[in-house]
Design goal:
- The structure holds two protein chains of two kinds.
- Chain A has no helices and eleven strands.
- By secondary structure, chain A is an all-beta fold.
- In chain A, strand 4 and strand 5 form a beta hairpin.
- Chain B has no helices and eleven strands.
- Chain B is globular and about 35 Å long.
- The mean pLDDT of chain B is about 95.
- The chains are: A mainly beta, B mainly beta.
- The interface of A and B includes residues 35, 61 and 101 of A.
Amino acid sequence: QVQLVQSGAEVKKPGASLKVSCKASGYTFASYTMHWVRQAPGQGLEWMGWINAGNGNTKYSEKLQGRVTITRDTSASIAYMELGSLRSEDTAVYYCARGVGSPRDVWGQGTTVTVSS
Amino acid sequence: DIHMTQSPSSLSASVGDRVTITCRANQTISSSLSWYQQKPGRAPKLLIYAASSLQSDVPPRFSGSGSGTDFTLTIRSLQPEDFATYYCLQSYSVFYAFGQGTKLEIK
């Protein structure tokens, strides 16, 4: 079955960088766009960006532009989200999701990231 | 930027009630609007896509309507498992955006 499995929880210090992985299985990885969405504690969902897993094209939210980078390894069916210059406000659960807003919508289990000194 | 405004931000209702949540875009998004349900500690679940299409395995008491800038999610005959937070999402622009959410609580 279609599945997205994310890497484990992380604790980072302010100013550090973060890299979360999302391994896809059960479908042709390159045929879909992968999105990243985050949710700070007690807050709403925030769309971060997407990557076209086939051609590698990306789009990022204006708020995170310059700090976030989404990449993929098509041979391993893995998408990555890197976030730099971490600050306490980046503490959140980070989700990868295929086909957001479409009937082919599938989400990962979420990765909890804590930024604290 | 396309911004999505949901209302109300919270709502109290009883089992069996009919509730409506609205979502407004600051510019036209055609029918590129979906609705998600999220329960604590869980990933969001897609309910409605393309403004009014019901995702498979979603009960028919959920329905969506609207186009352009104004959209609604209606839940007929609330069930105990429907108490959750609901989000709209626009996918018209390449820069997607969620509404701020509506928390549906038991009265």
